[in-house]
Design a protein that fits this description.
The chain is of the alpha/beta class. The protein is built from 11 helices and 12 strands. It has a 12-stranded mixed sheet. The longest helix has 19 residues.
Length: 353
């Protein structure tokens, strides 16, 4: 399957395109720092940051060469201030006062509420055409919960915010991707015991449909590998029968719809077969995995700094780094922006399709 080249971007060209939009994530985590570092390195001249202005100034102060924080008073200003070395920031209404004075690396309900408000406002921007894609810095699930936000993470919140009035939210799936491996998950943020019950014929088939539709948009007809749930993909029913009862029938139904899906394969080997590395062309374009850790461990093992989280099925492009808030190093100036930069590159690529 071919992938379009990442489009070039520069300040002169942006008069014809809406900007990318970056949310700050948790104000006490590394999100603001990695955003500031990406701007300081000259790697972002096509994005607006949805954040508390003082939080972004605090993060920028960690850097030897800080980008200039430019507060926006109106969304229409965004395209006029996109310049190298400047970081335009839009602060949504309703954020708690004094976020920049809160300690680094601690769970705080005010940070959780602010992260959620930034996401809500960001979705509004994208849906109104004020931004062409959304890139989200990491949030903290405990802080969200402490703020009374009834979602376990970005994916579920974005799904709910994308619902049309009077309609159910669109079905979405999480994909984690790097240059060597792309994995789409059937189940995500739930206990393993709950995930076993959530692996149904309908869920697997829907995942295959979403993965196929997304991959076709990137170019070509994708080959999808499906990882089993049980050891050795059940070994013909000896180690569990979900492959026989659920997964194989879903693959057969997908193939009837013209989806080039194969499996189920033993989960301990299929990721190696699909990996596209120098001297080792992958046999498949992406892998569908049944559970969160089954699918994400192989991708993250190849390098967290290069991984990108993409939410498939939304009516807009959303990407994010594949790491968390890293409270243990927050405020120390040590955070690596590489995964955020990769997420920005992926957002540019997918929003140009």
């Amino acid at each position: 399957m071919t992938t379009p080249e990442t489009p070039q971007h520069d300040g002169a060209r942006l008069g014809q395109a809406a900007p990318l939009l970056i949310t700050m994530g948790d104000a006490a985590g590394i999100g603001p720092e990695i955003v500031a570092k990406a701007f300081a390195a000259g790697l972002v001249d096509d994005a607006v940051v949805m954040a508390d202005v003082e939080v972004m100034r605090r993060a920028a102060a960690l850097l030897p060469r800080a980008p200039t924080v430019v507060p926006l008073s109106d969304p229409s200003q965004a395209m006029q201030v996109l310049r190298s070395g400047q970081m335009p920031v839009w602060t949504p209404p309703g954020l708690a006062q004094g976020l920049a004075s809160l300690p680094w690396g601690r769970v705080d309900a005010r940070c959780g509420h602010a992260a959620a408000r930034c996401i809500e406002e960001a979705v509004s921007w994208v849906r109104r055409g004020l931004a062409r894609a959304l890139v989200t810095a990491p949030l903290h699930k405990e802080a969200l919960s402490a703020a009374g936000v009834d979602f376990p993470g970005h994916t579920e919140m974005l799904q709910a915010l994308s619902a049309q009035a009077g309609h159910a939210p669109p079905p979405v799936r999480m994909m984690l991707a790097n240059e060597q491996l792309k994995v789409v998950l059937v189940t995500i943020h739930m206990s393993l015991r709950q995930a076993l019950d959530a692996v149904t014929f309908e869920a697997v088939l829907q995942t295959l449909r979403i993965a196929d539709r997304a991959a076709r948009a990137w170019g070509g007809a994708p080959r999808l590998a499906v990882a089993g749930l049980n050891p050795h993909a059940g070994e013909g029913g000896l180690f569990g029968d979900e492959e026989l009862r659920i997964i194989a029938p879903a693959i057969a139904a997908a193939r009837q719809e013209g989806i080039d899906a194969h499996g189920p394969f033993a989960p301990d080997t299929i990721f190696m077969r699909a990996r596209n590395a120098p001297g080792h062309p992958g046999e498949f374009d992406l892998v569908v995995a049944m559970t969160h850790d089954h699918g994400l461990i192989p991708v993250k093992y190849l390098g967290v700094e290069h991984g990108v989280n993409v939410t498939l099925g939304l009516p807009f492009v959303r990407t994010s780094p594949d790491h968390g808030t890293a409270f243990d190093i927050a405020g120390a100036g040590k955070a690596d922006p590489s995964s955020l930069v990769a997420a920005l590159q992926m957002a540019r690529l997918l929003s140009a399709v």
